[in-house]
Amino acid sequence: MARAAAETIYPLLGAVLGDQLRVRLRCWDGSVAGPPDASVHLTLRRRRALRRLLWAPNELGLARAFVSGDLDVDGDLFESLAQLDRVVHPERGEPIRADRTGRVAALKAALRLGVLGPPPKPPVEEVRLAGRRHSLRRDASAIAHHYNLSNEFYGLVLGPSMTYSCAYWTDEAKDLTEAQTAKHDLVARKLELRPGMRVLDVGCGWGGFVRHAAREYGARAVGITLSTEQAEFARKRVAEEGLGDLVEIRVQDYREIQDGPYDAIASVGMAEHVGAAGLPGYAATLFELLTPRGRLLNHAISRRPEFTVRKDKSSFIDRYVFPDGELEPLGVQVSALEQGGFEVRDVQSLREHYARTLRAWVDNLRSGWAEAVRLTSIGRARVWQLYMSACALTFAIGRIGVNQVLAIRPDTDGGSGMPAVRRI
């Protein structure tokens, strides 16, 4: 009689995870192994899940198996990922890798189970971009991959604010919408917006901040995005709110702006798309677009310096979520701004706020799951489920952070226009 799949595979899990984590495994043939009260419950729905892992025994293989539905994590995905992370990642963030003995055992198990064969085709949601990295055309393609899904899908996940960046959970914020409004106002106050000021929002998304700047502060705001879907939505909202005289939405790359100077610039969740090599040029461009004593609010995700960037392209985020996105340490971001001529005046971490924001987005996705699948695909919905749950975890444990850096363009005499006492 053929050996049950779970009975064959379960010892391999033990070889990798040791006795640090209790796992319950269910396989495509109905076989089950592991304690019923295990911390993590995994289901291998098809033999193909193992083939994916054999050809890509890393994060990418796991992601392909999950996105395709070949592998399921039963129960709360965030909690399961947290349990797995404690075992798979030691302090320095390097994943445990199977040794030669483990790989040989895996191949023997695969042979017994009849799952050997050519690499399965990746899910259609996976993308690999062509052209020179961070060229105008390739950056536009990267943005389109992520942001041009559908405004209805983003509305389901993000909620009424349609704001796709870290919220600011003040004591007064009762829900996600109010927390996003608090974030918009935090940015506006740091920039000290006033009526008639020209403010540029680099990577304006669906226009939440520019509308807030115009409506609440009387600023004349220009928002730029590379996403046609975002621009269409933002222009409609601007018109509905009667802000057409104060707000302009453009489909434009920040490197192509010619109508400076601006009194203030907000860049929220955009610098991550620039790349390490592009940060100096990014800083220099924004510096030139500002008037003397003008302020820049750069809100960006950062990684801890000890967690190095993989060069093997096995990243789930790079292949499925943010192609060409790059996270740099806070110190690298600040240095780029300073080298571009800016004087950095304030830094505020919002790391815990982003973990909470992501959990709110996951809750929205869960409650609207059927509609999310209808608007995109089951694979795309699973991408977002995995991506947001994993990111919530990495923010919560401090592997990545998010910071607001306030910088100024000093005038020729070194004047800053900053108050002597910190007001925010």
The percent range for strand residues is 15-25%
Would you give the CATH topology of the largest domain?
Rossmann fold
Number of domains: 2
Tally of strands: 11
CATH class of the largest domain: Alpha Beta
Structural class call reads alpha/beta
Task: Evaluate the radius of gyration.
Answer: 24 Å
Instruction: Give the end-to-end Cα distance, rounded to a whole number of Å.
Output: 71 Å
Q: SSE order, as H and E? A: HEEEHHEHHHHHEHEHEEHEHHEHHHE
Q: Low-confidence parts lasting 5 or more residues at pLDDT below 50?
A: 90-96
CATH homologous superfamily descriptor of the largest domain? Vaccinia Virus protein VP39
Organism: Tamaricihabitans halophyticus
GO molecular function: methyltransferase activity
InterPro entries: CFA/CMAS (IPR050723), CMAS (IPR003333), SAM-dependent_MTases_sf (IPR029063)
Protein name: Cyclopropane-fatty-acyl-phospholipid synthase
Précis, in short:
This is Cyclopropane-fatty-acyl-phospholipid synthase. By secondary structure, the chain is of the alpha/beta class.
